[in-house]
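Intended use. Records like the one below are meant for learning the mapping from a protein sequence to its folded structure. Do not use them to infer anything beyond what is encoded.
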Amino acid sequence: MRLCRLANAGTVARIDFRINRSGQPHVLDNNTMPGFETGNSYALAAMNAGCG
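Structure written out for the chain above:
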């Protein structure tokens, strides 16, 4: 959640990152609309919650 807040990503996001050997995280990608295609887990969760 802290990464989402720092990236101003809103409430739904996928942030891909790697952690180096020193324990330092490096952000690779910030996707604010992750996987909303049919059959994706986000889409299924939204449908199960009554959102569509």
